[in-house]
Structure to design on (150 residues):
């Protein structure tokens, strides 16, 4: 069996008996999780956060990271990463690293804090409300001025 086919067999084990699809999927997911841990151990610590193992087929290791600058730094250190990975039985035939940028779908928005109005700003709003001829604007400015901190 050639080296390429040997690696494909490790990552591409299929269920041989019918009805064992779930078991095969769970086995494959567990293998993927173990491989991802090995890859993240080989990736430099400052680049591991936000980096994921995608696949490894035919000697090509595919990694995904959340931003382009991290992808560039991973590309510069790909030979170092491959050298560490080749020490592992699972990745002994890795000869190429492909890095994709896959940004996060969403980011947690920071909680918006309402800062209370200072007494000086409240005074200025009341003063401006006194000079305004528009009744609706005057009422809005006075209402804003009432939100002063104690």
């Amino acid at each position: 069996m050639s080296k390429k086919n040997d690696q494909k067999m490790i990552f591409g084990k299929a269920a041989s008996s019918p009805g064992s699809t779930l078991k095969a999927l769970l086995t494959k997911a567990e293998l993927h999780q173990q491989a991802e841990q090995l890859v993240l151990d080989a990736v430099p610590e400052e680049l591991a956060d936000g980096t994921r193992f995608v696949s490894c087929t035919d000697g090509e290791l595919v990694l995904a990271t959340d931003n382009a600058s991290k992808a560039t730094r991973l590309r510069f250190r790909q030979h170092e990463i491959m050298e560490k990975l080749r020490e592992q039985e699972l990745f002994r035939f890795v000869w190429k690293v492909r890095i994709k940028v896959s940004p996060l779908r969403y980011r947690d928005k920071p909680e918006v804090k309402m800062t209370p109005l200072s007494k000086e700003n409240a005074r200025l709003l009341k003063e401006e409300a006194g000079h305004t001829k528009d009744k609706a604007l005057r009422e809005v400015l006075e209402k804003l001025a009432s939100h002063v901190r104690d």
Summary: Residues 114-150 form one domain. Strands lie at 51-57, 60-65, 96-101. The helical segments are 3-11, 21-42, 45-48, 68-76, 78-85, 119-131, 135-145.
